[in-house]
Write a structure and sequence with these properties.
The protein has 429 residues and is of the alpha/beta class. It has 2 domains: 53-71 and 334-425, Aspartate Aminotransferase, domain 1 (Alpha-Beta Complex); 86-331, Type I PLP-dependent aspartate aminotransferase-like (Major domain) (Aspartate Aminotransferase, domain 2, 3-Layer(aba) Sandwich). The chain has helices at residues 31-41, 74-77, 86-98, 111-122, 133-152, 173-177, 182-185, 203-209, 235-245, 298-301, 317-331, 334-351, 379-388, 411-425; strands at residues 53-57, 60-63, 68-71, 126-130, 160-164, 195-198, 214-219, 249-253, 277-280, 292-296, 358-363, 368-372, 391-392, 394-396, 400-403. Strands 4-10-9-8-7-5-6 form a 7-stranded mixed beta sheet, sandwiched between helices. A 4-stranded mixed beta sheet has the order 1-2-3-13. A hairpin with a 4-residue loop joins strand 11 and strand 12. The chain is globular, with a radius of gyration of 23 Å. Bound molecules: pyridoxal-5'-phosphate (PLP). Residues 1-27 are annotated as: Disordered.
Amino acid sequence: MPDPGPLSYRGGMTQTVNPVTLPSDETSTDPQWYIDLEDKHAAHNYGPLPVVLAQGENATVTDVAGKTYVDALAGYSALNFGHGNERLIQVAQEQLASMTLTSRAFYSDQLGPYARDLTTLIGKDMMLPMNTGAEAVETAIKLARKWGAEVKGVENGKQEIIVMEGNFHGRTSTIVSFSTDEEARAGYGPYTAGFTIVEYGNAQAIRDAITENTVAVLLEPIQGEGGVVIPPEGFLAEVREITREQNILMMADEIQSGLGRTGTTLACHYEGVDADVYTLGKALGGGIVPVSAVLADEDVMKVFTKGTHGSTFGGNPLANAVAHEVVKMLASGEFQNAAQERGKQLAEGLEALVGEGLVAVRVRGLWAGLDIDTSLMTGREACEKLMAEGVLAKDTHGSTIRLAPPLTATEADIEEILRALRAVLGVDA
Ligand SMILES: *Cc1c(COP(=O)(O)O)cnc(C)c1O
């Protein structure tokens, strides 16, 4: 081989790139064909129900064989406004045609107006745009630690954040470090230090866990992945009081509970509580693009200065345009009201099933956790049976089913979910 010459010349060398022949773009109407491909080539980090979706319209989804279902999961609440929401699709299409990415090396005509309206809706001075929920939580953790070091005066490296048992805040290595779900955590060490785990809903446990190095309490106002676990009345207000008194940030992860799901704009609003820091995600992207944000007042957010945090896609024009429209939609209150109204219908139907195959139900807005009587079937089995009845839902923690249909679901959609559930549990209407 001839001497390739000095390194700086190598970029000019001719490289032969062999074209890759991709397998045909063949399609099929046989669900199993897609299931086999996905199982062979996509990592098995989920255990999907055996349904292959191809199309969605509001709360109705259609599989590759043409069978329709009511979507009672709504992308874990990322689809609060339904599939193919006309307003959101139109805004996205217009933005696609004009500009999709600037990077924050430059200003964007879509960020300022969106940031103004989002902060107005939530009642904070400033927002920081990220993409996924886990990134927003990571950002909030960094924010709390830096605030602790620079404003509160905790020695850097000693900052502690109090978190809750049964939490779900995402999947990064730092976040799973303080998960209490063995499945989410096992094998991923070494774990990030600096977190103290206390019992959810127990304000005294928070008080007892506070040290001079505590910088924040991070919690979900309602634990979503935990199974729609609603803390005792007054808990959030008490956390607010303790954190204010102790000069600690109260950080509410509203990624799943926020943006209308519970019948209010934020789940914290139900108790009239205003946290110091909010994380938003999921529905913020309208089911179209991953969009998340951290919100805080200026006296906290100011610790992020040039070069201290960032994201290539965070605050991109397409995301901003879609999220801005989501904010405008929520400003009217109509979706929160719809969540209350449809939620009431759902709650009434579910309560009638307690003792009839359901051990307990927890409902807030259009969001429900149902504990299945495990002597009848597991949560997974119930979801498979619901699927056969034309309703898609997801089990969590063995025996719990979470229902979170789009806030735009119709009265008939909710009735269909209840009918299917009665059929699965063998209860006569
Ligand atoms: C889904 C969720 C996250 C993580 O969001 P991703 O977009 O999946 O990273 C964080 N916190 C809560 C409360 C969630 O429900």
